[in-house]
Write a structure and sequence with these properties.
2 domains, FAD/NAD(P)-binding domain, three-stranded antiparallel beta sheet, globular, 391 residues, seven-stranded mixed beta sheet, alpha+beta
Length: 391
Amino acid sequence: MMAGLLLARAGVDVVVLEKHADFLRDFRGDTVHPSTLELIHELGVLDEFLKRPHTEVHELGGEIEGERIVIADFSHLPTICKFIALMPQWDFLDFLADQARRYPTFHLLMNAEVTGLARSGDRVTGVLATTPDGPIDVNATLTIGADGRHSIVREQAGLDVQSFGAPIDVLWMRLPRHESDRSETLGIITAGHVFVMLNRGDYWQCAFVIPKGGFAALKDRGLEGFREDIARGVPFLRNRVTELKTWGDIKLLTVMVDRLRRWHAPGLLCIGDAAHAMSPIGGVGINLAIQDAVAAANLLYRPLLDGRLTSDHLSSVQQRRLLPTRLTQAAQLFIQERILGRVISGSGPVTLPLPARLIRDHPFLRRIPARLVGVGVRPEHIRTPDVFGRN
């Protein structure tokens, strides 16, 4: 959606296909980081964006065996917004779609599920899709695959995926939030358990970390045992876990960390999770995807307008975004293996890792994780023009 918006405002004719009738998919990433808010500011629509329902996270903290610690303090970031905005992704996508519809070169097709790629020789020339009115062909000079970690586009293109594995999966659920509850977003670590709580106003969006492939064993223990695990780790939720009435109230996120060796083919480019599936650690996935989209629009809008797009142009997007992707995934893999995996395996006592102890003892160090999470490596800025003068 962001790539479509930026290319359309630069004068490129764009079609975005969404397979559902709306964007109401629960438990999509909804952490809009300062780097993304900066881009919305650069588009000139930040005030309008922040009118949408959201909560603001100014610090990231944790609780390890009862000891509270602030890990990241966003107040010193060199950005307009010094906070993370928690906003349901459907609201974010609706907002971007509303902005994009102002441009005559933008076209959004809902209920249009991509089923395959159109080709001419070895070149991708568009997509095949199904709609309620029957199949359609969409011809395109460039096809951008932004269809997530289970991307049909990258599968159909036969692009080689490098998988790095993950020792964890995550269970997502909602629990009621009371006015007397703490307000901060935080992770709670106790022996054998990692529980994350995101403040969404009248409810907590919660993540329960489990061993890879461990959901079936958890279900075999029964729902009551799972509720007790939560209540034991977070006692103030004990009177609310009964809101988890069936396993249908709990969604499994299978954690994957992978990366395409090559993000492109003639006429095709993958970005976001389609190019590099991220762990949910840090909530950075949506923001890296947005950065990919901005880089792609910056580097490709002129060749597209001039009719001279080549594989070298597509390669330049990967070259631009590969370092941030590698470094972010490396950090996520380290945390998964060295911290989360060890905690949930129950191997040894839970203690503050050395970096956390340093941050606790030297608060100015909170600026480092804040910068890495909130801004990231090589943040992008919007270089595409608005040829319609709408801003």
